[in-house]
Design brief:
14 helices; twelve-stranded antiparallel beta sheet; alpha+beta; 318 residues; 37% helix
Length: 318
């Protein structure tokens, strides 16, 4: 996954803030629904996203066949994603039985009528699953996408994802398992990002190397990267939407010396990527060349701002 596809990848919540809240803020009551063992947390303020001049293109870019099928499923439950959803957040967490495997679990807030979902399932004579006394509405669509369900926690909050993920969240909600507030390493990063951008994501130490490998593929090819990556503590991504689109990615390293080394690796990798794309995609090449990379203490930050005219070209399907 190249840097040019960073925004679509992070905004792919369809495949996957209330007006009174701060911009891009995930409220504390929602954080308490997330399990302690979460490895990453991401958030999208859909109200801010819809106000972006690039929303139409983003929606077109993200609405894959499976995403469209999930959207139709939500509509059958009485949910209009374009009007009823205010924000969406999701986490990746390990499956209890097989910790090496992760599940994607999402929550969203808006305005819902759970009785419409029950009416639809009863009219279609479809079975409704249950866990901890909570009704689960499973999606029974095309092959490979069956293990996806939606549950209404109340008239303003839904949760969605694979059955294993929903069970984990419901156990957390009812006190059977500790919540994210007990994961000090990750919750501290969430508190740093929460409310500061309409789109943000945080990744723990174990998830950060994989994110960097996808976002900066050239930087991971250097010999020093393996040593430095072993000391990554966490990473944070923030995206500001508007006429301009600003992306900032921060990595916390093990030491100031490692941060300086990693900063040089990023700079060199970005220049190499810029050179590789110069002939076929000159616009992307110029953008990569002006990514600003710097280190301060144990922190490394890569930051770039896209002008309005640059965004459509970067979101084109390739």
């Amino acid at each position: 996954m190249k840097l040019a596809r960073l925004l679509p990848a992070l905004l792919a919540v369809l495949t996957l803030a209330p007006p009174a809240a701060a911009q891009g803020a995930l409220p504390s009551d929602a954080l308490y629904l997330l399990p302690q063992e979460s490895r990453s947390v991401a958030f999208v303020d859909l109200q801010a996203l819809r106000s972006s001049p690039h929303y139409g293109l983003l929606r077109q870019r993200l609405l894959t066949p499976r995403a469209a099928a999930y959207e139709r499923f939500l509509r059958s439950l009485g949910i209009d994603p374009e009007k009823d959803l205010d924000w969406v957040a999701w986490v990746r967490a390990p499956v209890r039985a097989t910790p090496a495997r992760e599940v994607l679990l999402g929550i969203a807030r808006g305005r819902f009528r759970p009785e419409l979902a029950e009416q639809f399932f009863m009219q279609q004579r479809l079975p409704i699953d249950a866990y901890r006394g909570q009704s689960l509405y499973p999606y029974r669509g095309e092959g490979g996408a069956q293990d996806f369900s939606v549950t209404f926690l109340d008239a303003t909050t839904i949760a969605f994802g694979r059955r294993a993920g929903l069970e984990l969240m419901l156990e957390t909600r009812y006190g059977g398992r500790p919540d994210l507030s007990r994961n000090q390493a990750l919750i501290s990063r969430v508190n740093e990002a929460n409310g500061r951008a309409p789109v943000w994501a945080v990744f723990d130490a174990g998830s950060t190397p994989g994110v960097i490998r996808r976002l900066f593929p050239e930087a991971v090819k250097f010999d020093d990267y393996v040593r430095v990556a072993g000391g990554f503590r966490a990473s944070t991504l923030q995206i500001a939407l508007g006429r301009q689109l600003s992306v900032a990615f921060k990595v916390s390293c093990n030491s100031a010396a490692d941060a300086e080394t990693f900063s040089h690796l990023l700079e060199t990798g970005l220049l190499a990527h810029s050179w590789q794309t110069q002939r076929l995609r000159p616009g992307l090449s110029g953008l990569l060349a002006r990514v600003e990379v710097g280190s301060a203490g144990e922190q490394v930050e890569a930051r770039v701002t896209l002008e309005e005219r640059e965004v459509p070209a970067l979101l084109e399907r390739r």
